[in-house]
Design brief:
335 residues; two-stranded antiparallel ribbon; globular; Arc Repressor Mutant, subunit A; Fic-like fold; mainly alpha; 2 domains; 14 helices
């Protein structure tokens, strides 16, 4: 049976979507003209990780998450908590890359994502596998294990089909709730569900810059988050209020990013940089690596040595990229 979510596009939701459209256009226009996109992306990744893992009981602070993201260790922190944070950071990087490619989300994608999130945290045979037993979440009793695969098949068919006719924030919110309602895994459903909701925003082209930290909003408003999820069930499956809550979370995040962009621009004192497509690609490559040598850059971008320097020089002048190491073995990294 096809999955058919029940909701109403309320005046509140229409207003929120209209404001999102204006805000997103402002953000994209501003962000591509300032040398701070990698900073915003790093901050969002760390805030999402802190928010989502904190909801599940992780006690590491945002600053400690930041240290782990930068490759530093926390000698006094519990290994399990460090593993949870590192796994979530890895999972975010994975969906950032996948989101840039667009495409469908299949069973294997969901299972792989859960495997990354829960690696070394639960029994190996349960990571990346739909649950083999029943579970209970507060007063909610999810479907029995024998129905999980079929229900996920229906959900993914909806995500890859009819969901495309809806605004991305609506399809993301519905995917988020329905996944949690099915609760397909033995553990790690909250983190995996929030990642899938972000992935939907990425692949639908809504947060192409990967600068929204919606999970941070959920953490700071976690009682309202739980209440909005539960209200869907008490309201006979009507998703309207839940979607409105998610829309407000996205809006609040968008407003924060716009303010942060303005602050970073004001602090820089530099002329904004209009990024060329290959410069955007170069920043993506540097973000996903520990730095690249000149030869690696021109090989990856299919440009000459001079062409690579023509791309790099404005980025270095703007303070976005810097060179480290000696003349012979030096490489370029994000500042």
């Amino acid at each position: 049976m096809p999955y058919k979510p029940s909701f109403t596009v309320s005046p509140v939701l229409v207003k929120a979507i209209e404001e999102m459209a204006v805000g997103r256009d402002r953000l994209v226009t501003a962000a591509v003209r300032v040398p701070w996109v990698p900073i915003l992306q790093k901050e969002a990744r760390e805030k999402n990780t802190h928010g989502s893992t904190s909801i599940e009981g992780n006690t590491l602070s945002l600053e400690e998450v930041r240290m782990l993201d930068e490759g530093k260790d926390l000698l006094s922190a519990a290994e399990k908590e460090k593993r949870e944070v590192r796994n979530y950071l890895d999972a975010l990087r994975r969906i950032e890359k996948a989101g840039a490619r667009g495409g469908r989300i299949g069973h294997h994608d969901v299972l792989d994502l859960h495997g990354v999130v829960m690696a070394g945290i639960i029994q190996a045979e349960l990571a990346g596998r739909y649950r083999p037993h029943g579970v209970r979440v507060g007063s909610h009793v999810p479907p029995p294990p024998g129905k999980v695969h079929d229900l996920m098949t229906e959900l993914l068919a909806w995500v890859n089909g009819p969901a495309g006719d809806l605004a991305p924030v609506i399809s993301s919110a519905i995917l988020h709730f329905r996944f949690e309602d099915i609760h397909p895994f033995a553990d790690g459903n909250g983190r995996t569900g929030r990642l899938l909701a972000l992935w939907e925003l990425y692949r639908r082209g809504f947060d192409t810059l990967h600068v929204f930290s919606v999970d941070e909003y959920y953490w700071h408003n976690r009682q309202a988050y739980y209440r909005a999820l539960q209200e869907v069930r008490t309201n006979g499956g009507d998703l309207t209020h839940w979607i409105e809550f998610v829309a407000e979370a996205v809006l609040a995040t968008m407003r924060q990013v716009l303010k942060r962009t303005a602050v970073l621009t004001g602090k820089s004192g530099r002329e904004p940089v209009v990024l060329r497509p290959k410069q955007e690609r170069l920043l993506e490559l540097l973000r996903d690596t520990q730095g690249m040598s000149p030869s690696q850059i021109w090989d990856a971008l299919k440009v000459s040595r001079q062409g690579a320097m023509d791309l790099l020089n404005p980025l270095m002048k703007a303070g976005m990229v810097k060179r480290v190491g000696g003349k012979k073995y030096g490489k370029y990294i994000l500042s």
